[in-house]
Every structure is written in C-alpha cells, then in structure tokens.
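note to self — DONT lose this again. spent like an hour looking for the file last time. sequence + predicted structure for the chain T wanted, 140 res
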Amino acid sequence: MKVVLTITGSQRFGTDEPEKTSLVTEGTLEREGDILLLSYEESELTGMEGTTTVFRVEPARITLQRSGTLESQMVFELGHEDRSLYDMGFGALMITVLTDRLENTLTDAGGEMDVSYSVAIENETAGHIDYHIHVRLQET
C-alpha cells in the first residue's frame, strides 16, 4: 500500500553541532508474514538519487537496505554491533553501527520508528545518528 513517510534526523560528528534533516516522501508498506517492508526512492535532496531504501521491520530488529547508486545494509538491534560495507559506487568503506535505542510501533496502518546509533567508519568513531520515521497511509 502507498504511504507517506516523514523522516527527521539528527547527526552529530565529533564536537560539531548536530546537523538536523527533515524529509517528507512517498513510499510503500508491504507485509511478508511477520515482517513489514517499508520502502522509498531517494532523491536529489538526500544526495542519493537513483537509490532505493528499504526498511525490513521485525519485532526486535530493523534492517536498512539501500540499492542502486549506493549499496549498503545496516542492521539495527539493541546490543548488537553490525559491520558492513558502504559502497558509494567509486569505492567502499567498512562501517560499524551500534544501536542504543530502537522503538517501533509500525503496523499495516502506519506508525512510527525511532532508531539511535553510533557509527564508526574504518574503525574510527565518526558520530551518532538519531532518526524518527512517521508513516501514514496515503489518502486515495
């Protein structure tokens, strides 16, 4: 089904002031058994035009998968450190994410997700990222 996503985020790198972002976009929400798949197309605004982002939402874990001009996968699970390659098309970096907050009320009727995690790039601490995603069914 078609949905509208409102994504707000805050990224802190080192001692810099947090960089806040906000995006409203259309996407889809589908169910596969106990798993919800939330997807949308990135745009020029996000700097990832040509990339599809899919959130695979499970009861205790959310997996973010990007494919297209950017290839990556990050698994968000409390107490779990996830290592993966972040392929930007011209080279790849090893990234590590450690989830410190994961809240999810997403259902077939919409809902919300909150993800907060620390990120390291090539084993060097890079910063901390917080995302809030609000999902509502698109009016027809």
